[in-house]
Amino acid sequence: MSGTAVAAPERQNPGVRARLGDLVRVAELDGRLLGMILTLILIEVGFGIYTGGQILSPVNLLTFATQAVEIAIIATGMVLVIVSRNIDLSVGSVLAVCAMTYAVLMHEIYPTTIGVDTPYGWLLALAIGIGIGCVLGAIQGFLIAYVNIPSFVVTLGGLLAFRGLVFDISGGSTQAPDDKAFVVLGGGALGSLGGTLSWALGALLIAVILAYLTYNRRRRRKFGFPVRPLWAEVLIAIGGSLIVLGGVYVSNAYHWPRGLIQQYAAAHNISPNGLDFEAGVPWPAVILLAVTVAITFLATKRKFGRYVYAIGGNPEAAELGGINTRWTIMRIYILMGFLCAISAAIASAQINGATNDLGGGYELLVISAAVIGGTSFAGGIGTIPGAVLGAIVIYALRYNLQYIGLASNNQDIVIAIVLVLAVAFDTFSRRRAT
Amino acid sequence: MSNQPIPDPAATSMPAAMAASHASVPLVEMRHINVAFGGVKAVDDVSVDLRPGEVVGLVGGNGAGKSTLMRALSGAHKADTGEILVDGSPMSITNPRDAKAIGIETIYQTLALADNIDAPANLFLGREMLTPVGSLDDSAMESATRKVMGRLNPNFKRFRAPVRNLSGGQRQSVAIARAVHFNARILIMDEPTAALGPAETAQVRDLIRQLKSEGLGIFLVSHDIHDVFDLAERVTVMYHGKVVATVDKAAVSVDEILGMIILGKPPSTQTSADLAAIQH
């Protein structure tokens, strides 16, 4: 229905667009990842303006970031699952089994055996829970890789069976509380690094970024390969450092609430007046950071990760290349069990116990995070940092929409639209690239 | 592909030496190989052999069993029965790793590349170079890939792009590079020129002559009878899973081979009526 009077559609200035594209290409940046960071900034700035800045207060930023951690940790593994052309629907139930294991151990078993709040009790519980998570993952991985049952079916079974198992472990009731040392894993004012340690962590991270960039550049030089222009390296170093410093700054801008200070003062027999503590980086964020770095390393710098991507790109080629594809697939699911157990520790610590419905519906959130982060269901494509950012985008939206009073059913509608748009964007940009 | 490949002395001296010392023993003997899919005998009691420095053409119509026979040698599909000898010793080849360990490399018709990863990652797939701490040594792999590509296809520049973004010829050269980089002694080339233009086809032919002169034994599977006739010393014709005959190229004409492919009969038993039928 194009009328003759309608002018030619306005086009973006191709010069500027091309130059931006060049910038990203020459600096060898991940455009997809940059786009997500920009999206996140847009979301925060947009809601910030709408709420007159309230939503940008440190406590709000920290709250949604901490909420995102449970999903983000599992999403790092879900990337590898989907990249290998599989799926895992059981993550919420596996998480619940692990969380219930922690809670039952600390609440029911420890009092009559090793005692509560022992220095090692929480570590023992963690070890047992991680072991159980890995075993559940191994069972599913074995059925998928060696018995050739489709992963959708196996993990759908896992979703149902492991949820049933949770009730068996708990006896049907909510189990609480956990050991005090364990609760620290959940974050909050008491579950954070504190001001000084947070700055130390920031300094360490910046040192690592600089060392990594220098090492890579030296190595490529040594082999005589083309390297990024120096300005690009400097830009990346500055950008990375600013993100680190910003994170630490925001975390330290959140101070212990008054009530907690008074409790602390009473416990130590000092006056609460003038007492003030910076909360610092929450432990869940530290754990997520460690998991993200570790899984990214696994995915990009180890044979295991290389094989996962090769299987996703062309399963037959991987087989003909002599890769043990079955063992590779089984290992992905063991890793998933491990990540669910880690996430379960944070989930349990945050509610100081475990409920029977913990983690319900997580499978869809985790898959959404991976997909928003650029993971393709066609297999072979996806990045771990992308999935982590995907989880953060979901929770930023969720938290902010809730903050402005949107009902949760409508929050789901918004997140669904973002999910579909992200995939549409990927489909479009990949079609253009080839 | 472009320019004539230059031999790499380090990679070639070994096979050449072996070729000389084992000239009397066939490099590969496949004896009485059987492969069945369900009730269908895809390969039916087939025996073929290959000498060092020789190209054996493997021809036949669709479903003749050429690729299946070669998949048994490359470890992609285990033979049901039969014996494979390399340098006269029986070998157990149950998977691609076994085949590669004894110097059998394959260029598959499909190329068998993982499209989502780059050329060095494909070249070293399953045989990655590692740093002392066991991580992938991507720089070393890229460096090695640049070297081998400099020999095979000096125009190849996109070492860090996923191979899906490469042209058909470039992808082919990645698959060829993978086969020749690891000092193969036995090369299986399944339709190596099917996806290539005339110039690239000529370069693959040059490469085959080159590798032959270095003492490799090559099984060349092809639909293109002229390719085979041009490059092979001997031609094995297959028909419905069986070997019709293995003939010296010098002893037959292209038409006689075509007759064998279509009729499934050796030249001596072909009647003039048979041949007349092919002409039309």
Question: Your description of this structure?
Answer:
The complex is a heterodimer of chains A (434) and B (280). With 434 residues, chain A is mainly alpha-helical. Chain A is 71% helix and 0% strand. Chain A has 17 helices and no strands. Residues 1-12 of chain A have low confidence and may be disordered. Chain B has ten helices and ten strands. Chain B has helices at 9-21, 66-74, 96-101, 119-123, 138-152, 168-181, 198-213, 225-231, 254-263, 272-279; strands at residues 28-37, 40-50, 55-59, 81-86, 89-91, 104-107, 186-190, 217-221, 234-239, 242-248. In chain B, α5 (138-152) packs across α6 (168-181). The longest helix of chain B has 16 residues, at 198-213. Mean pLDDT of chain B is 85; it is low at 1-22.
Low-confidence spans of chain A: pLDDT under 50, at least 5 residues?
1-12
Poorly predicted tracts of residues of chain B: 1-22
End-to-end separation of chain A: 31 Å
Tell me the greatest interface: A-B, 30 and 33 residues
What structural class do you assign from the helix and strand content of chain B? alpha/beta
Multimeric state: heterodimer
Overall radius of gyration of chain B = 19 Å
**Shape estimate of chain B:** globular
* Alpha-beta content class of chain A: mainly alpha
Specify the number of helices of chain B: 10
How widely separated are the two ends of chain B?
Answer: 38 Å
DSSP E strands of chain B, number:
10
SSE pattern of chain A: HHHHHHHHHHHHHHHHH
Largest sheet of chain A: none
Secondary-structure element string of chain B: HEEEHEEHEHHHEHEHEEHH
> What is the makeup of the main sheet of chain B?
6 strands, mixed
Which strand order do you get reading across the main beta sheet of chain B?
6-7-8-3-9-10
Please indicate the percent range of residues of chain A in DSSP E strands (runs of 2 or more). under 5%
Radius of gyration of chain A, in angstroms, nearest whole number: 23 Å
Strand residues, percent of chain B? 15-25%
